[in-house]
């Protein structure tokens, strides 16, 4: 695929919406949110974006993980010994 074809696909996606697996993720999230919101208070529905996988997340550092686990441990009454 040359750069012109790649540019054409990018333009197509901008006009038509996401294609491929990303589109499948969005459609599945819409279905899940419809089911979940059918059984939830109408005043506080979940947005479908809550159900779209976020593949681009950065990995937490070991220090961030340690702080999170220490907080969970303290909440559950654990000790640090």
Which descriptor suits the 3D outline? flat
Number of helical elements: 3
Order of helices and strands: HHH
Q: Which value, in Å, is the CA radius of gyration?
A: 20 Å
Q: What is the distance, rounded to the nearest whole angstrom, between the alpha carbons of the first and last residues?
A: 58 Å
Low-confidence stretches: none
Decide which structural class fits the backbone. Answer: mainly alpha
Q: In oligomeric terms, what are we looking at?
A: single chain
The number of strands is: 0
The description of the largest β-sheet is:
none
Which band does the percent of strand residues land in?
Answer: under 5%
Mean pLDDT: 87
List keywords for this structure.
mainly alpha; Minor tail T domain-containing protein; 81 residues; 0% strand; single chain
Q: Would you mind describing this structure in some detail?
A:
- The chain is mostly helical.
- The chain has a domain at about 5-55.
- It is about 55% helix and about 0% strand.
- The model has no long low-confidence stretch (mean pLDDT about 85).
């Amino acid at each position: 695929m040359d750069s012109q074809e790649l540019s054409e696909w990018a333009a197509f996606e901008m006009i038509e919406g996401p294609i491929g697996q990303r589109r499948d993720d969005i459609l599945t999230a819409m279905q899940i949110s419809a089911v979940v919101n059918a059984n939830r208070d109408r005043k506080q529905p979940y947005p479908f974006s809550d159900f779209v996988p976020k593949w681009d997340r950065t990995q937490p550092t070991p220090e961030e993980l340690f702080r999170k686990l220490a907080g969970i441990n303290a909440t559950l009454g654990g000790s640090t010994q």
